[in-house]
Design goal:
33% of the residues lie in helices and 18% in strands. The chain is an alpha/beta fold. A hairpin with a 2-residue loop joins strand 8 and strand 9. The structure holds ligand 4FV.
Length: 228
């Protein structure tokens, strides 16, 4: 997968993509991540990328011209343009799995109060939010999306199974995990995990996942038709 990130702060991305799983994914050629500085497409002498909002109000708005030029400078036939925004649909595992199928993602990172609406209407395929809170910079949201989507690219995780047996895969929380020592500060590992009966272990794990989901995120269960 090729990912183009358009932002006003390409340096924001130094680090998160240069470690561990994402670093190896790029070394294996499974993932190519490129940065584009939107200000490079502001051709006036002050390289202006923002201006005051029509209709008044606080803050500044990103101008359409530099953003439009930047998008169309990297756009391909098979590009899918995503604007990271609090006004987008909240990112889910299902959406990450869907995006991992796409050959070319263009991630547009907003700043200030936002981007001129005419760009969102004309150039953007989908708006995605990483959560119901406001960040100082859309770049952080792009980092989260790249990380979460990359895990669904075949070959990125050690064993692809891992991505299929985790939280949210069945729409519920994952089970509690234990490892050695068998007793820690007087707390023993649940007996069922020590007896090696895989069917009982699988049933216990599902029960535990459901119970915690019920407690913490009943909304997830309501979404699970099968649960009703
Ligand atoms: C955001 C989010 C987010 C809004 C103003 C950047 C900020 C500033 N992006 N999910 N939540 N973006 O808060 O994606 O431009």
């Amino acid at each position: 997968m090729d990912i183009e990130i358009l932002s006003l702060f390409p340096e924001y991305f130094l680090g998160p993509f240069d470690e561990s799983i994402l670093k190896r994914a790029q070394q294996k050629g499974l993932l190519n991540i490129r940065q584009t500085q939107i200000r490079d497409f502001a051709y006036d002498k002050h390289r202006k990328v923002d201006d005051r909002p029509y209709g008044g109000g606080p803050g500044m708005v990103m101008k359409p011209e530099p953003v439009s030029r930047a998008i169309n400078h990297v756009r391909r036939e098979d590009s899918y343009v995503i604007h990271l925004s609090p006004q987008g649909r909240v990112l889910t595992a299902g959406k990450c799995r869907e995006l991992a199928q796409k050959p070319h993602l263009i991630l547009l990172c907003g700043h200030y109060e936002g981007i001129d609406q005419r760009i969102l209407a004309k150039e953007v395929d989908e708006e995605i939010s990483i959560g119901d809170y406001v960040l100082t910079n859309g770049a952080l949201a792009a980092i989260v999306l790249v990380d979460a989507v990359s895990r669904f690219i075949p070959g990125v995780l050690g064993n692809d199974e891992a991505a299929n047996e985790e939280t949210f895969e069945e729409g519920i929380f994952d089970c509690p995990h234990y490892t050695r020592p068998e007793v820690f500060e007087g707390e023993r590992v649940p007996q069922v995990l020590l007896e090696g009966n895989h069917a009982e272990i699988a049933a216990w794990r599902r029960e535990q996942g459901l119970a915690k989901t019920e407690k913490v995120r009943p909304d997830l269960l309501r979404a699970l038709q099968s649960y009703k």
